[in-house]
Amino acid sequence: MDESTLESVLGPELDVLMGEEPQDEQELVSEDELLGEEAGEEAADDAEPGEDSEEEAAAEPDAVAPPHSWSKEDKEAWAELTPKAQAIVARREAERDRFVQQKSVEAATTRNQVANEAREIIVKMHEDHAEKLATYARMISPQAPDEKLLYSNDPDAVITYQRQMAAYQRAQGQQQSLHQQIAQARAAAESEREQSQQAERASDAQRLREQLPEWFDPSSGPKLQQRLQAIGAELGYPPELMAEASSTDILALHRAAEKFDKAAKYDALMARKMETVRNAKGLPKMARPGAQPSKQQSNAAKGQQAWDRLKANPKDAEAAAAFLGI
């Protein structure tokens, strides 16, 4: 029987008997391996975009809310920006708002200063005007007419009396008018001075509100005020002066209170440390390694050993004698 007949009958078994591997199985295995490798590559390819998207999502910042001052149309355009661009624009908008607010405060402060200086000038003008009017009023001293001229039966004397009376009444009218103008000038000066003081108090309160907002807080404000009043009393501020304290005084007292609090915390910390040191002084001294123990330490060690022996054997007479020091 030739090899072709055996091959036709046995088929693949002939290759096994001859020590050769079947070609079909090799091809099938290689195909599976190739398919497995391709599937792995495809899975890797499929996984890589996901990983990239996750990394990009992690790197991409969250969306930022648009500025409150923007219009509805601007906010709709805001949604078209990327989160990174939104963050940059929001930061720049916040910086701009802070800059505008700072400059507005500076402008308001300058405006108040100029207004106060102008009011002071106006007050000085009114006061000077009132003083000049008072000086002029003192120069006008109406003199009453001589009534003897009226009863002298002399027509010329009567005419003189009438002229004196007219001059007297005219001078009185001028003097009354001057006194009214003086009162008006002084009232105007007082009004300008009061407006200047009100503006100064408003500016002072605004400064305090910006630098110490908790002073105006309904919950923490009263406690802070009591605290600063106590600090002021310790520093010698009378209560009536504390009631009229300016923002400069209040801020100075607040800084003093912070320093006092820090000093109190430091004192408490040092007190705890000193207490630890004092407690450590009462402990028995520890012998250094290799050093000869003191007599007190030796007696204490022997007593402890004797006590341990007694606890183990209450009938141990030697241990009892050693513990009692007999």
Question: What's the quick description here?
Answer:
This protein has 326 residues and is mainly alpha-helical. The chain has helices at residues 3-10, 12-17, 23-59, 72-78, 83-139, 155-211, 221-234, 239-243, 247-281, 295-312, 317-324.
Describe the structure.
The protein is mainly α. Among the domains are: 80-211; 213-274, no CATH class. The chain has 11 helices and no strands. The protein has helices at 3-10, 12-17, 23-59, 72-78, 83-139, 155-211, 221-234, 239-243, 247-281, 295-312, 317-324. The protein is elongated. The protein starts with a helix and ends with a helix. Mean pLDDT is 77; it is low at 1-11 and 13-51.
Beta strand %: under 5%
Q: pLDDT under 50 segments (min length 5)? A: 1-11, 13-51
Euclidean distance between termini CA atoms: 118 Å
Profile the largest sheet.
none
State mean pLDDT (0 to 100 scale): 77
Assign a percent range to the helix content: over 70%
Secondary structure class reads: mainly alpha
Rg over alpha carbons:
53 Å
List the total number of helices: 11
Strand segment count: 0
Sketch the topology as an H/E string, one letter per element.
Answer: HHHHHHHHHHH
Using the alpha-carbon principal axes, give the shape.
Answer: elongated
